[in-house]
Amino acid sequence: MSGSKLSLTILSDNNAAECCTAEHGFAIVIDTGTCVILFDTGKEGALLPNAASLGVDLSGVERLVLSHGHYDHTGGICEVLALAPEASVYLHPAALQKRYSIRQGIPKPTSMPENAVTMLSSLPDSRMNFIEQPCVLPCGAGITGPVPRQTGFEDTGGPFYLDTEGACPDPIIDDLSIWMETREGLVLVAGCCHAGIVNTLRYVTELTGTSRIAALIGGFHLSAASSERLSRTVEELNSFDIGRIIPCHCTGETAALYFRRNLHCPVDPGYAGMKMEFPL
Fold first, then answer.
1. Given phi > 0 = left and psi -120 to 50 = alpha, else beta, which region is 14?
2. What are the residue boundaries of the structural domains of the chain, listed by start?
3. What gap in Å lies between CA 265 and CA 247, rounded to an integer?
């Protein structure tokens, strides 16, 4: 590993390079030069073969950070921890709860897989880190913890509930993102950004005191966003100093295209196999 660069490689996404497999999920490995972090683990089946195809050794993962407890971000937990049995895990405690999406009256489980919950529950306390407020890892990467919901136009992005009857909406309070500081500005990575991408950007720039965003990467959960939300989101994003946006996973093709047409910065859709580097 080189200490002079921050390196990121997308391992799971809805789109993929020819050498990789696509799936409805998200995972990205982050090499800070002093530590290897895996942010999310995808849905199932794609993480390990994609890592092998890309030459990423998951046994070197030292820290596993989970953006939230949905199945499409936590499906590879058991595989990763089997390869990296000493890795520390970072997540909000609500990531372990039962949850559902309900469409046309039909509930669908969206929780973390049971085998992953069982494995995490068996880990020693020294390796489990429950994040309920912002923290900075020893390698310098920051984790937001729960993001304050301030905007009036952003919501969780779907019909999410904590019960099968739809009586208890799921605010997805476990949603968190991760950032790293580079010479070009902050690199911010989101899983699904259920807290809202504008809320998240506001919070991270407030926490760090840094206004320059070198890159904004990840899922923004805008696939079902209204035209008003997309318009307000673009208006807000254009008020930030952003070098590049890489929409992935749940952002949605319509939102990604809208970004490309209306944002002031370059927009390059992400995919499994995509590699990025930033000077430290």
1. alpha
2. 5-279
3. 13
Torsion angle of the four alpha carbons 184, 234, 273, 194, in this order, in degrees rounded to the nearest 10 = 100
CA 221 centroid distance within chain: 11
Among 267, 219, 278, which residue's Cα sits nearest to residue 242? 267
pLDDT, one tens digit per residue, over 1-12 is 345 899 999 999
Which regions of the chain does DSSP assign to beta strands (E)? 5-12, 27-31, 36-39, 63-65, 88-91, 100-103, 106-109, 128-130, 135-136, 142-143, 160-161, 177-182, 185-190, 212-219, 241-242, 245-248, 275-279
* End-to-end Cα distance, the chain: 13
Other CB atoms within 10 A of residue 183 CB: 11
Number of CB atoms found within 10 A of residue 193's CB: 31
Look at the alpha carbons of 188, 124, 79, 14 in this order and tell me if their dihedral is positive or negative: negative
Give the span between the Cα atoms of 36 and 275, in whole angstroms.
Answer: 15
DSSP, residue by residue, 183-211: TTEEEEEESS-TT-HHHHHHHHHHHH---
What is the per-residue pLDDT across 152-168, written as a single tens digit (0 to 9) for each?
999 999 999 999 999 99
CATH superfamily, region 5-279: Ribonuclease Z/Hydroxyacylglutathione hydrolase-like (3.60.15.10)
Whether this prediction's pTM lies above 0.90 is answered by yes
159 has which bridge partners? none
Task: Give the rounded percent of residues in the chain with a pLDDT score beyond 90.
Answer: 98
Element (H, E) at 261: helix 253-262
166 SS3 class: coil
d(CA 168, CA 244): 37
pLDDT of 236-269, one tens digit each? 999 999 999 999 999 999 999 999 999 999 999 9
